[in-house]
Design brief:
- The complex is a heterotrimer of chains A (about 675), B (about 290) and C (about 240).
- Chain A is built from 27 helices and 12 strands.
- With about 675 residues, chain A is of the alpha/beta class.
- Chain A folds into 3 domains: about 230 residues, no CATH class; about 110 residues, no CATH class; about 250 residues, Rossmann fold (3-Layer(aba) Sandwich), CATH 3.40.50.300.
- In chain A, the strands form 3 sheets. Chain A has a 6-stranded mixed β-sheet with strand order 8-9-10-5-11-12, sandwiched between helices.
- The longest helix of chain A is centred in the N-terminal third of the chain and has 27 residues.
- Chain B has a domain of about 200 residues.
- In chain B, about 75% of the residues lie in helices and about 0% in strands.
- Chain B is built from 10 helices and 2 strands.
- Chain B has a two-stranded antiparallel sheet.
- Chain C has a single domain, classed as Rossmann fold.
- Chain C is about 40% helix and about 25% strand.
- In chain C, helix 3 packs parallel to helix 7.
- The chains are: A alpha/beta (about 675), B mainly alpha (about 290), C alpha/beta (about 240).
- Chains A and C meet through helix 25 and helix 27 of A and helix 8, helix 9 and helix 11 of C.
- Chain B: It is a multi-pass membrane protein.
- Chain B: Belongs to the binding-protein-dependent transport system permease family. LivHM subfamily.
- Chain B: It comes from Methylobacterium longum.
- Chain B: This is Branched-chain amino acid ABC transporter permease.
Chain lengths: ~675, ~290, ~240
C-alpha cells in the first residue's frame, strides 16, 4: 500500500486571492445589471445598435481567445468563420424563409463543421504555418461565398428583414412589454447569448479541456506523453471557437440585416486579433474590453475632437503609469521612456492633424505594434500585474484543498519472476548512424533499473524509443500487463502512456503557465470520464469528478513534497521543485513503469537526497523505475540492476557494484589511454 | 491544344512572380525562422515607388533605385517588426508585428498614391509575340527573365561572396556562425533587406501587366506562401517548381472553371500539402530531440 | 594567456558553474575533464560567448571578454570548435574553412594570407583535401571533426577551444584526432581541451582540471593524474 505523508491542507487563502473571486462575481453582476439597464438609460437606437455589435464581436473574440490565448496559436481565419455563420443564417432565410432561431442553430452547426474542416490541415502545423493555413482558409471561404451565387447571391449579398425573436401571436397573446419593448427583444437576445458564452467559456476553460488546451501550448511533447492527444484537443479548440464564431455570425447577420462577401476579410480578422491581444488573453473581461475598443475606435477616429480628447486621456494615463512604474522599478528604468514617450507624443500629433480617418488603418497598425511590444498580456494582463487582487483564480484557488486517498495506486509489485519490460534487439538507425545497435534489456517488476553510459551511448535514444517518440528501426519492446503482453514499439506516445508507461524529461517539460496542481491534473486526465457537454452544462458528474481528482492531485503533490506549492505556477517554482513536479505529474498516470531521464541533473545535494527518498517510495509502492542518470552516487545508491550502454551496444549489466568495478565500463567512461599501439574495442 | 499551351505560357510568368516572392520568404526564414507577413506590401510599395520615378528617368534606370528602396524597407521591417519581437521572446509576436507594419505601409501608400488602381507604363511593346501558335507578351518574357536573373544573382552572392556564405552559414547553424565571428544579427537584417528587395523588384516586373495599387500585393503574397510551403521553406529550387505548378494551375482553373475561382487552387494546394507533409514537398524532415 | 576567475554560469534557473578559477598559459594544452553533466561544455560556451556568464571574469591576454557576444569573442582571437562539430552542412569543405577566417576577411583581424592558411589546413588534413569541394554535411563524423578543427584554426587564434573532439567517434578516429592535437601542440598552439574521455585528454595535456558538479575538484600536472584513483571516482562515484 502506498505511504503518504499526513495530508496537508493548503495554507488558508490570504486575503488577496479571495478578493479575486469576489472581483469576478462583482464584475459579472455589474455586467448583467449594466446590460439590462443600458437601453433604458441610453435610448438612442444608434448606441443600442453599437452595444449589440460590441456584444456580438465579444462572443466571437471569447471564442478566438480559446485558440489564441489558450492553445497559443495565431488564427488568421476567424473572419472567415464569422462569415460562414452569418451566411448560414442568411442563406436559410433566403431559400427557406427561416427566422433567427433557425439561423442561430445553423450558424453554430455549420460553422462547427467548418471548424473541423479547418482543424484537419491545422493539426500537424504550428506557428507561422498555422497562421498561413487559417489565412488560406479564410480567403477560400470568401471566394466561395462570392462565387456560389445561386446559393449565396454572390457579391450582391442578402438582405434580411427585422428579426422576429419572440412570436407572441403563436400563443394568441400580445407582447407584455409593448411596442417599444419589442424593439429591444433582439438586444436582450444578444445579451443573453453573450452571458451564455461567458458561462460556457468559463466552464470549458476550467475543465480538463481547458487544461488540455493550455498544456498543448506549453509543451506538446509532454502532452502526448501524458496521454493527452495533441491532435484531438486541437480539434476541440477549433470547433468550440468556430461554434462561437458561428453564433456571433448568425446574430450579426440578423443585426445588420445585410450580408455581403467582402465584409469578412483580412481586415476584420486583424481587428479581432487586435481585440483579443489588446483586451487581454485568457480572460473574460479582456475580449469584452477589446471588442468595445475595436467597435468604438472607428467612431472615435471619425471625429477629430474625440480623437484629441482620447489622445489626451492616453497621454495622461501613460504619464501616471510611467511615473509610478519608474519609481517602483529597480532595473532597466529607461526602457520605460519609449512607450511612455510614444503615448505622450500621440497627443500633440493629433493637434496637428485635421482628420485621422484616412489613417485609420495606420492607427490600428500602430496599436498592434504597441500591444505586441509593451502590452503583451493586454490591458487585463497589465491590470492583473499591477493589482495583485485581480490575479486570475486558478482552479480551486481560494478553496481549501485537501488530499484524499492514496497518492499512488498500488501495483502488483514484488519482485516477480517474469520481466515487466522486455527490449529485444532494439535497433535505431538515423541515416547511416546506428544510435542503438541491437540492445537487449529486461526489467524486473518492482525494481529500480539504471541505464548509464557516456555521452552518445544511446541512453536518450532508448528512452525515446521506449516512450514512442521514435519508432525503432528494428527489434521489439514488450510490456507485461495483467495476464498478457503488449507490444509498445510503433505505438504513439499517447498510447504508450495509456498502457501504463510514464516519463520525465531531460529538459523539464512542465506546463509552465499552469499551477503545480493543474500540471498534475493534466496527468490525471485519463481518469476523467465526463464529456464536453458535462463540462459546459456543469453537471453533478462533472463537479464530482473535479472534486475527487483535485483531492487525488493534492495527495500526489504531498507525496512528492509539493503540497504547500500547489497554487504556484510551474514557471515560478525553484528548479529542484520543478523536477519533482514532473515526477508527480508522471505518477498521476497510474503507471506500472516510470522512466526518469536524468532527474538529478542540475540539483543541489539536499535536492538530490529528497529525490532519492521519493524514488524509493515509488519503488516501494510497486512501481517499476528505469533511471537514466549521470550522477553515479545516485545510481549506485538506488539501482537494483544497472545496464551500461556504449556506442549503442550494451557492454555490461549487473548490480551497481559489479558494474562500477567492471574494467570495460571504466574504459567506456574514461576512455583508454590513446597510445601508439592499435586499440581493440570490446 | 493551342489554348492549353497558351494557358501554360501565361501561367509560367505568373508563377515566376510567386517564386520570386516566395524566394524572399525562404531567405528570412532560413536565417531567422521568421518571415514578413507584409511582403505583399513591400511588393506594392516597390511598384508604386517605381511608378513615381518612371516619368523622370524611365523604366530601366528606375530599377536600381527601386532595389535600393526595397533593401532599405526590409531593414526597417526587421528593425521595427521582427527584432523587438524576438528580443522579448514572444513566440509569435513577429507575426502580428509584420502584419501590422504591412497594414501601416498599405495605408500610407493609399494616402500617397490614392485608392484607385493605376496604370504602369510598359517598357516593352504591348503587342504580343507569336511563338509557335502561342501569344506571349514581351513583358511576360521580361518577368520570367527578370525573376530568374534576380534569384540567380542572389544565389551567386550566396556562393561567391564572403557575406553570402555568412548568410548560408547562419541559415545552417546560427550558433556556429557566431563562433566564426559572424555578426548573425546583421546577417538577419541583411536577409530581410534582400527579401524586401526581391519583392520590390517583383513589383516593378509584374506592375505593367496588372493593375498597380496599394492592394496589389496582398493576394500575391498569400499565394506565394503556398509556393514557399510547397517548395519547402528551406530549399532554393523548390520555389521555382512550386511557382510554376501554382501559376499554371491558376490559369487553367481560371479558363476551364471560372475566373472567380482562379485563386482557389493555390490555397487548396497549400492546405493539402500542409495536411500531408508539413515540411513541404522539398523540405527536410526534422528529427525530434527531447 | 587565458585567465578565468570566479566564473559562474547557467541556463534559466539552473546555475551549472559555481565560481571556476583556472588558467591556460601560452603555448600549453590544458584539459578540463569530468563526467557528463559536470559543466564542461557549459564552461566552453561561457568562454566563447554562446551563453552569458553570471559572475566572474574571463581575460584573454589581459583583455576582458566575459559577456561579449560570440562573434566579438571570436574577433578577439578565441576560436571554439564546438561540441558536436557543427560544420555548415550545405557549404563545401573549402567554404567552411574560408568562413573560419571570416574576421580576417572582413577587417576585424589582421588579414594575413588566407589562401595559404587554407592550403596548410589541407596539408594537415589530407582527407579533407580529397574532399575539398564536397558538401560538409556528407562527410563522416571523423572528417567533420577534422574540418571543425581546421576551421577553428583558420582564425589564427590566440587560443583554441576544443569541445569534446572525441564524441561519437570510433576509437581509431579518436586516435587520429589526438595525433593532430599533438601536432598542434608541437606547433605551440595554445589549447583548452574539454573531454569526457579522461585518459585521452590526460595523454596530451600539460595540466588538467577535474570538474564535478560545476566546481573544480582538483587539478594538477596531467602526467600525475593519469593513475590517480580520484579521477576515476569523479566519473564512477565511490570514495574520493
Amino acid at each position: 500500500m502506498a505511504q503518504t505523508l499526513a495530508p496537508a491542507e493548503a495554507p488558508a487563502p490570504a486575503a488577496a486571492p479571495n478578493l479575486s473571486r469576489h472581483v469576478g462575481i462583482l464584475g459579472a453582476v455589474l455586467l448583467v445589471v449594466g446590460l439590462a439597464v443600458f437601453p433604458h438609460v441610453v435610448t438612442s437606437s444608434y448606441y443600442i445598435h453599437l452595444m449589440v455589435v460590441i456584444a456580438i464581436y465579444a462572443i466571437l473574440i471569447l471564442g478566438l481567445d480559446i485558440v489564441v490565448g489558450y492553445t497559443g496559436q495565431v488564427s488568421l481565419g476567424h473572419a472567415g468563420l464569422f462569415g460562414v455563420g452569418a451566411y448560414a443564417a442568411a442563406v436559410l432565410f433566403l431559400h427557406f424563409k427561416l427566422g433567427i432561431w433557425w439561423g442561430i442553430l445553423a450558424g453554430i452547426g455549420v460553422t462547427s463543421a467548418f471548424g473541423v474542416l479547418l482543424a484537419v490541415p491545422a493539426l500537424r502545423v504550428t506557428g507561422p504555418y498555422l497562421a498561413m493555413v487559417t489565412l488560406a482558409f479564410g480567403t477560400i471561404v470568401q471566394i466561395f461565398i462570392n462565387e456560389l451565387t445561386p446559393l449565396t447571391n454572390g457579391p450582391l449579398g442578402i438582405t434580411l428583414p427585422p428579426a422576429r425573436v419572440l412570436d407572441f401571436s403563436l400563443l394568441g397573446l400580445q407582447a407584455p412589454w409593448g411596442a417599444a419593448g419589442r424593439k429591444l427583444e433582439f438586444y436582450y437576445l444578444v445579451c443573453l447569448a453573450l452571458l451564455a458564452t461567458i458561462l460556457v467559456v468559463n466552464r470549458v476553460v476550467r475543465s480538463p479541456y481547458g487544461r488540455a488546451f493550455e498544456a498543448l501550448r506549453d509543451s506538446p511533447i509532454a502532452c502526448d506523453c501524458m496521454g493527452v492527444s495533441v491532435y484531438r484537443y486541437k480539434v476541440y479548440a477549433f470547433v468550440i471557437s468556430a461554434a462561437l464564431a458561428g453564433l456571433a455570425g448568425a446574430l450579426f447577420a440578423w443585426s445588420e440585416r445585410y450580408v455581403a462577401p467582402n465584409s469578412y476579410g483580412f481586415e476584420l480578422t486583424v481587428l479581432f486579433l487586435l481585440a483579443v491581444t489588446m483586451g487581454g488573453r485568457k480572460s473574460r473581461a479582456g475580449p469584452i474590453i477589446g471588442s468595445a475598443i475595436i467597435v468604438m475606435m472607428p467612431n472615435v477616429l471619425a471625429d477629430i475632437g474625440l480623437v484629441r480628447i482620447m489622445a489626451g486621456i492616453i497621454a495622461g494615463a501613460a504619464l501616471v503609469v510611467g511615473v509610478l512604474a519608474f519609481l517602483r522599478r529597480r532595473e532597466n528604468r529607461f526602457a520605460l521612456l519609449v512607450p511612455v514617450g510614444l503615448c505622450l507624443a500621440f497627443f500633440p500629433a493629433t493637434l496637428a492633424l485635421e482628420t485621422v480617418t484616412d489613417f485609420r488603418l495606420t492607427v490600428f497598425g500602430l496599436m498592434i505594434l504597441f500591444v505586441v511590444y509593451y502590452l503583451p498580456d493586454g490591458i487585463v494582463g497589465f491590470l492583473r500585474e499591477t493589482i495583485p487582487a485581480l490575479r486570475p483564480a486558478h482552479t480551486a484557488e481560494g478553496k481549501n484543498l485537501h488530499a484524499e486517498g492514496a497518492a499512488l495506486s498500488a501495483q502488483s509489485g514484488g519482485a516477480g519472476a517474469d520481466p515487466l519490460l522486455t527490449v529485444d534487439q532494439a535497433l535505431m538507425q538515423f541515416g547511416g548512424l546506428k544510435a542503438l545497435a541491437g540492445v537487449d534489456i529486461t526489467v524486473r517488476p518492482g525494481t529500480i533499473h539504471g541505464l548509464i553510459g557516456p555521452n552518445g551511448s544511446g541512453k536518450s535514444t532508448m528512452m525515446n524509443v521506449l516512450t514512442g517518440i521514435y519508432r525503432p528501426t528494428g527489434g521489439s519492446v514488450t510490456l507485461a500487463r495483467g495476464q498478457g503482453t503488449k507490444r509498445l514499439d510503433g505505438r504513439t506516445p499517447s498510447e504508450i502512456a495509456a498502457a501504463g508507461v510514464a516519463r520525465t524529461f531531460q529538459n523539464v517539460q512542465l506546463f509552465r503557465e499552469m499551477t503545480a496542481l493543474e500540471n498534475v491534473l493534466v496527468g490525471l486526465h485519463h481518469s476523467f470520464r465526463g464529456t464536453l457537454f458535462d463540462a459546459i452544462l456543469g453537471t453533478p458528474r462533472r463537479r464530482r469528478e473535479e472534486r475527487e481528482q483535485r483531492a487525488r492531485a493534492m495527495a500526489i503533490l504531498d507525496f512528492v513534497g509539493l503540497g504547500a506549492l500547489a497554487q504556484v505556477e510551474a514557471r515560478n517554482l525553484p528548479y529542484g521543485k520543478q523536477r519533482l513536479l514532473e515526477i508527480g505529474r508522471a505518477l498521476a498516470l497510474d503507471p506500472v513503469l516510470l522512466l526518469l531521464d536524468e532527474p538529478a541533473a542540475g540539483l543541489t545535494a539536499p535536492d538530490i537526497a529528497e529525490l532519492t527518498t521519493i524514488i524509493r517510495k515509488i519503488r516501494d509502492a510497486g512501481i517499476t523505475v528505469i533511471l537514466i542518470e549521470h550522477h553515479m552516487d545516485v545510481v549506485m545508491g538506488l539501482c537494483d540492476r544497472v545496464s551500461v550502454l556504449d556506442f549503442g551496444h550494451k557492454i555490461a549489466e549487473g548490480s551497481a557494484r559489479e558494474v562500477q568495478a567492471d574494467p570495460k565500463v571504466v574504459e567506456a567512461y574514461l576512455g583508454s589511454p590513446v597510445a601508439d599501439e592499435e586499440l581493440t574495442h570490446a | 491544344m493551342a489554348i492549353l499551351l497558351q494557358l501554360i505560357a501565361s501561367g509560367v510568368a505568373v508563377g515566376m512572380i510567386y517564386a520570386a516572392i516566395a524566394f524572399g520568404y525562404q531567405l528570412t526564414f532560413a536565417t531567422s525562422k521568421t518571415l514578413n507577413f507584409g511582403q505583399g506590401e513591400a511588393l506594392a510599395l516597390g511598384a508604386l515607388f517605381g511608378l513615381t520615378l518612371v516619368p523622370f528617368i524611365g523604366y530601366w534606370l528606375m530599377i536600381p533605385l527601386v532595389l535600393v528602396f526595397g533593401f532599405a524597407l526590409g531593414a526597417v521591417v526587421e528593425r521595427l517588426g521582427v527584432r523587438p519581437a524576438v528580443k522579448i521572446k514572444s513566440e509569435y509576436g513577429w507575426i502580428m508585428a509584420t502584419i501590422a507594419l504591412g497594414i501601416i505601409f498599405k495605408n500610407v501608400a493609399e494616402n500617397i498614391w490614392g485608392r484607385d488602381d493605376l496604370k504602369f507604363p510598359s517598357p516593352l511593346p504591348e503587342t504580343a509575340l507569336q511563338v509557335g501558335g502561342v501569344r506571349i507578351l514581351p513583358m511576360e518574357l521580361l518577368i520570367v527573365a527578370g525573376a530568374l536573373l534576380m534569384m540567380l544573382a542572389v544565389e551567386i552572392f550566396n556562393r561567391k561572396s564572403i557575406w553570402g556564405k555568412a548568410v548560408v552559414a547562419t541559415s545552417n547553424d546560427i550558433d556556429a556562425a557566431g563562433l566564426m565571428g559572424i555578426n548573425t544579427q546583421k546577417v538577419i537584417t541583411l536577409s530581410y533587406s534582400i527579401s524586401a528587395m526581391t519583392a520590390a523588384f517583383a513589383g516593378v516586373l509584374v506592375a505593367p501587366v496588372t493593375l498597380t495599387g496599394a492592394t496589389m500585393g496582398s493576394v500575391l503574397a498569400l499565394k506565394a506562401f503556398a509556393v514557399a510551403i510547397i517548395g519547402g521553406l528551406e530549399s532554393g529550387l523548390g520555389v521555382i517548381v512550386g511557382g510554376l505548378i501554382l501559376g499554371v494551375a491558376e490559369t487553367l482553373t481560371g479558363f476551364y472553371i471560372s475566373t472567380g475561382y482562379k485563386d482557389v487552387p493555390g490555397l487548396i494546394l497549400l492546405l493539402v500539402v500542409l495536411s500531408i507533409r508539413p515540411v513541404g514537398l522539398f523540405g527536410k524532415a526534422v528529427i525530434k530531440k527531447v | 594567456m587565458l585567465e578565468v576567475t570566479g566564473l559562474s554560469a547557467g541556463y534559466g534557473q539552473v546555475e551549472v558553474l559555481h565560481g571556476l578559477d583556472f588558467q591556460v598559459p601560452k603555448g600549453q594544452v590544458v584539459a578540463l575533464i569530468g563526467s557528463n553533466g559536470a559543466g564542461k561544455t557549459t564552461t566552453m560556451r561561457a568562454l566563447s560567448g554562446m551563453i552569458r556568464p553570471r559572475a566572474g571574469s574571463i581575460r584573454l591576454n589581459g583583455r576582458e571578454i566575459g559577456g561579449l557576444d560570440s562573434h566579438d569573442v571570436a574577433r578577439s582571437g578565441l576560436a571554439h570548435s564546438p561540441e558536436g562539430r557543427r560544420v555548415f552542412p550545405t557549404l563545401s569543405v573549402e567554404d567552411n574553412l574560408t568562413l573560419g577566417a571570416f574576421p580576417r576577411l572582413t577587417g576585424s583581424r589582421p588579414k594575413g594570407d588566407v589562401a595559404a592558411d587554407r592550403e596548410r589546413a589541407f596539408e594537415m588534413f589530407p582527407r579533407l583535401k580529397e574532399r575539398r569541394a564536397q558538401l560538409a554535411g556528407t562527410l563522416s563524423g571523423g572528417e567533420q571533426q577534422m574540418l571543425a578543427m581546421g576551421r577553428a584554426l583558420m582564425l589564427r587564434p590566440e587560443i583554441l577551444l576544443l569541445d569534446e573532439p572525441s564524441m561519437g567517434l570510433a576509437p581509431k578516429l579518436v586516435e587520429e584526432v589526438f595525433r593532430i592535437i599533438r601536432l598542434l601542440k608541437a606547433e605551440q598552439v595554445t589549447m583548452l581541451l574539454v573531454e569526457q574521455f579522461a585518459m585521452a585528454a590526460l595523454g596530451v595535456a600539460d595540466h588538467a582540471y577535474v570538474l564535478e558538479n560545476g566546481r573544480i575538484r582538483f587539478q594538477g600536472p596531467a602526467q600525475q593524474m593519469r593513475n590517480d584513483p580520484a579521477v576515476r571516482a569523479a566519473y564512477l562515484g565511490g570514495t574520493h
